[in-house]
Write a structure and sequence with these properties.
2 copies of one chain form a homodimer. Chain A folds into 2 domains: 82 residues, Arc Repressor Mutant, subunit A (Orthogonal Bundle), CATH 1.10.10.10; 97 residues. In chain A, strand 1 and strand 2 form a beta hairpin. Chain A is elongated. Helix content of chain A is 57%, strand content 6%. With 196 residues, chain A is mostly helical. Chains A and B meet through helix 1, helix 4, helix 5, helix 6 and helix 7 of A and helix 1, helix 4, helix 5, helix 6 and helix 7 of B. Chain B binds a DNA duplex (30 and 30 nucleotides) through helix 2 and helix 3.
Chain lengths: 196, 196
DNA sequence: CTTGCCTATGCAACAAGTTGCATAGCAGGA
DNA sequence: TCCTGCTATGCAACTTGTTGCATAGGCAAG
């Protein structure tokens, strides 16, 4: 179950409560793994029982107390083992593609609005990623490794930062690909007739 | 549940048995939706009970008899309704990205072999898609709509074919994007040091 | 002072997906 | 004849993921 490992990674990057994790899963972690708060609370409880996480009650003023989770030594070991296992191929789920092929048995043009809506969502996501990249990785148009303050001046590069950036670049590449493909799909939908 | 709709689409394109569907889900349908035979048999049974599918016992020689499913009128209506509903955003699951960010707390370079393996799988998948495109859509290097035998000569374009091709082009674009991104990831892994 | 919103945690029921196993006919090769 | 492999269908148990709801304190606006 990769959700457990996503939680381990996130808590290693920074300890936090279930609520905070849920919000991270709407932001940076959510770029490559999604989970709702119910799922997170359930898994946190199990991982704590298994000894992979430590908990600490943190009283807060002005808001309810929280349980701050952090990764135990055993949790770190477990993550290390998982990292060395091969990944089995991801299962694909592209609902829009199912609809596209289904549209042949209905009115293909009726899908145009929906495809445009998806394209807008991907454009928004791309803008969001690019803004995050400018903010966190100080890149302009063309990335130049030497201008990166963390790698310049003979400093050892921060592996975590470099890897986070590489993952973000993957998200950016994905959104760009989707936007271009949806342009292609829209052209196709407009070219073909109004179906059966 | 989109598996039901993927099955409706597949059976509309061509009726078949659960076994045949399972094999299609390893091939063309599998480009955008995956399912195992257990899942398929279970859902077929439910859809038949709901009246969305018709069954026909087909005796065969040299092999066991099969049940051939086809879409009922009600099933076609149900698909049409689904097509007009908006899709909720896909949930993302990129296990490799989780590992990449986790690698910062282990040895990043240990992931190189795994990333290379994934890149090979994506190259194989791309080759497979391109071969399918050449076979089924008779394209060479640059697609030219006028040279398409089905659209040439004033013939009305086959919407199903056009849409299948558009979906396939999406798969091709995805694999090309992944191959390029994994090159980027490999360069990053090789650049950064051997971790903690 | 009531209403809505944010933080914070959680249960229960259900739907979907995975894993392991079982059955059975037939074909072809060792 | 036995073993392997392909076609063909299915059950049972389990894990994951989703949806709806419940609770509770504090803050700010109206």
């Amino acid at each position: 179950m990769a959700l457990e490992h996503a939680i381990l990674v996130s808590l290693l990057e920074k300890p936090g409560s279930g609520y905070e994790l849920a919000r991270r899963f709407e932001r940076s972690i959510g770029y490559f793994w999604t989970a709702t708060h119910q799922q997170i609370y359930r898994v946190l409880k199990r991982m704590e029982a298994d000894g992979r996480l430590d908990v600490r009650e943190v009283p807060q003023q002005g808001r309810p107390d929280k349980k701050e989770y952090s990764v135990s030594a055993y949790g770190l070991t477990a993550l290390g083992e998982w990292l060395h296992e091969p990944i089995q191929p991801e299962s694909v789920r592209h609902e829009l593609a199912v609809k596209l092929r289904g549209a042949a048995f209905d009115d293909p043009r009726a899908l145009i609005g929906e495809v445009e809506r998806h394209q807008r969502m991907h454009r928004d996501q791309l803008d969001h990623y690019l803004a995050g990249e400018r903010r966190d990785f100080a890149v302009s148009d063309s990335r130049t490794a030497v201008s990166d303050p963390l790698t310049a001046g003979g400093e050892p590069p921060d592996a975590g930062r470099e890897l986070q950036h590489a993952v973000l670049r993957g998200g950016i590449a994905y959104e760009r690909m989707m936007i271009a493909w949806l342009d292609d799909v829209l052209a196709t939908l407009r070219r073909i007739g109004p179906g059966r």
